[in-house]
Specification:
Blueprint: H1 21-32, E1 43-47, H2 61-73, E2 77-82, H3 95-104, H4 109-112, E3 116-118
Helix pairs in contact: 1-2
């Protein structure tokens, strides 16, 4: 049985003062009816990509904050998460380096309004902490 998938798209250029990204993200939240899947007290993981140096093709922290606020409004407990990258030497190679590089792009609890949690092991090795 095939699952039903809906895709939403919007031009991010505002056409009026009321047509802001904040308004758009709130309308998207309502259109998807995602609030119906969140129960009071649910932990809600918001998986994103924190970006890398020189790459600006990621969701901006202030836009994620809009979703954080909507999740909190319906009773959820949101947190923002990402995973480390391939290779321990890169800026996304370990949980510590990922958090440091993401903070430079404002992915912090203060900016997002929710805790930031790295989803995989400190060395990004799926829990195998004995590797070096």
């Amino acid at each position: 049985m095939m699952s039903k998938v809906q895709v939403y798209f919007s031009d991010s250029r505002a056409k009026s003062d009321e047509d802001t990204f904040r308004t758009w993200i709130r309308k998207l939240f309502e259109a998807t009816r995602i609030d119906e899947t969140i129960s009071k007290g649910d932990l809600v993981a918001m998986k994103t990509h924190f970006g890398t140096t020189g790459n600006d093709r990621h969701v901006k922290p202030e836009h994620l904050r809009e979703i954080v606020e909507k999740v909190r409004e319906v009773g959820g407990q949101p947190f923002v998460t990402d995973t480390t990258g391939i290779g321990l030497l890169g800026e996304r190679g370990t949980a510590a380096s990922l958090l440091t590089s993401s903070a430079r792009r404002r992915f912090t609890e203060e900016t997002l309004g929710a805790p930031v949690i790295v989803a995989d092991a400190p060395k990004g090795l799926s829990g195998d902490q004995n590797r070096s």
